[in-house]
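Methods — Computational structure assignment.
A single polypeptide chain was analysed. Its primary sequence is given first, followed by the predicted tertiary structure written as structure tokens.
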Amino acid sequence: MSASSILPPSLPPSPARRSVAPPRAWTESYGVARHPVWLFGAGHVGRALVLALAPLPFALTWCDSREGAFPAHIPANVTPLRHDAPDELVARIPAGAFVLVMSHSHPIDLAVTAAALARDDLPFVGLIGSRTKRARFEKRYRELGIADARIAQLSCPIGIAGISDKDPAIIAAATAAQLLALRETLPHQEITDHA
């Protein structure tokens, strides 16, 4: 029996099947649609998070303002983006994307998170830091006119509850778990675009 005799005459379009030559064959792509994540900060926690998210169903755009901040080897699901004013990049983030902020600078963290919280089409804005940092930033968000309801949606500290270790790899694992759990609550879309 030839392969062409066991295939149905016409396969319906499917994200898991794509037609290739010859016309009666298909290939399966494994995995699922990659949800967009914009990560601001290429420091030690940012690098650990990129590695933690590499095999997972996320398409990362990794932003930093510093020259030479990105490592030589970057996973295939990551697009590095250097920009002198990272907060200006927030306007380019697609609706529905997750945003994580962990830059080398509190002023950059504040500017990026404020710009992200000002948008109501970003379902997750996460900020690395303590409850003290969150309280300071909340005061500044209010001064900038961000609604209390939106400020309450900020995830800071980041990561699933119950993990207090500050090792970068552990923060990354806890944050990856948080993103996976959140992803499960959203309608699935096939979004794979980077910056």
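Note: The CA atoms of residues 66 and 82 lie 7 Å apart.
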